[in-house]
Amino acid sequence: MKKIAVLTSGGDAPGMNPAIRSVVRTAIYHGLEVVGIRHGYKGLIEKDFFPMKRGSVADIVQRGGTILLSARCEEFKTEAGRKKAYANMQEEGIDGLVVIGGDGSLRGVQKINAESDIKAVGIPGTIDNDLACTDYTIGVDTAMNTIVEAINKIRDTATSHERTFVIECMGRDSGYLALMTGLAGGAEYILVPEIDFTPQQVCDKITQGFKRGKLHSLILIAEGVKAPFADLTEYHGSPGMAMGDLIREKTGMETRVTILGHLQRGGSPTATDRIVASRMAAKAVEILLDGQRDKMINYLNNSIGVCEIENAIKKTETINMDIYNLANILSM
Ligand code: ATP
């Protein structure tokens, strides 16, 4: 292996920059040349390549987002699109590729390994923490801290005005962020796609809380929640807004809704995200040097390891019921 490339793909996540930095510097340390690819798989198809040196990644360890830019690319899902990408990489003399992204990006890695001579490996980079075989995906720690900080601020104003607040956080298919930040932020109710509930249950708990003298009620809801009010969600374009309407209607209480949106994806990566990203990326380079392919770097029991991509992208049960039950007990 002489020359490797690195790209970021899918939704950006804080910690991608420390991962890129570690790929580049570990590779150079081992005598490899490094090519940066801009805009994810789109950049592979359009040959948006540039040489990366040690200095190319100076002063980025603390920066959110990704200096390589990220994209979603439908063309890479087609055989014709991928053929262009393989030809571009061969022309450039690239024989190894590190992809930093979520489950969709990892499916792209599988295709590259199955259809070309290029050895490709993946690093889990997504704030959703929705991959199997790893306790951790890069970005989740920063996103959790951002959400908890927002909850703290909303709690101040909720208490002052004795209001109910619905806070919607990210998680299209996974309630992980809502669950963990709901526990850390002391939310009264946590609503996630994986667990059924009725709006009446939520309203009853809010009403009981205020009767007992609670000064506020915080409901944390994941953006992926659909049932049991799919029609209302469709109408409002968001489950948080739908839930806010239902609470107002059923309890008559003053209710405000905050949709945290994309601020959850930004920000300087936390120390944990920087450390895990740096370690995972170094491992990715090492396994490429070792001749491995089609693997994802994982983090289990405080150890950096390697697993099959096929196992990592299997849909997992992301809700830990012990944590969910504990959050309920603590918010009584
Ligand atoms: P996030 O978790 O932030 O959504 P992701 O990596 O899952 O990140 P996706 O949009 O699902 O984000 O995938 C990123 C890109 O990976 C897609 O735009 C596409 O270019 C590529 N990709 C996804 N699925 C496949 C597939 N089955 N075959 C080839 N390429 C794919």
Structural commentary:
The chain has 332 residues and is of the alpha/beta class. It has 2 domains: 3-139 and 269-312, Rossmann fold; 140-265, Phosphofructokinase domain (Rossmann fold), CATH 3.40.50. The chain is 44% helix and 18% strand. The chain is built from 12 helices and 11 strands. Strand 1 (3-8), helix 1 and strand 2 form a beta-alpha-beta unit. Helix 7 crosses helix 9 and helix 8 packs across helix 9. It starts with a strand and ends with a helix. The mean pLDDT is 94. The structure holds adenosine-5'-triphosphate (ATP). Adenosine-5'-triphosphate (ATP) binds at residues 9-11, 41, 72-73, 76-77, 101-105, 107-108, 111, 126, 128. The site of adenosine-5'-triphosphate (ATP) has 18 residues, from helix 4. The active site is at 128 (proton acceptor).
Query: DSSP helix count?
Result: 12
Q: Strand share of the residues? A: 15-25%
Helix content: 40-55%
The overall strand count is 11
Binding site for ADP: 21-25, 155, 186-188, 212, 214-216
EC number: 2.7.1.11
Binding site for substrate: 126-128, 163, 170-172, 223, 256, 262-265
Organism: Halanaerobium praevalens (strain ATCC 33744 / DSM 2228 / GSL)
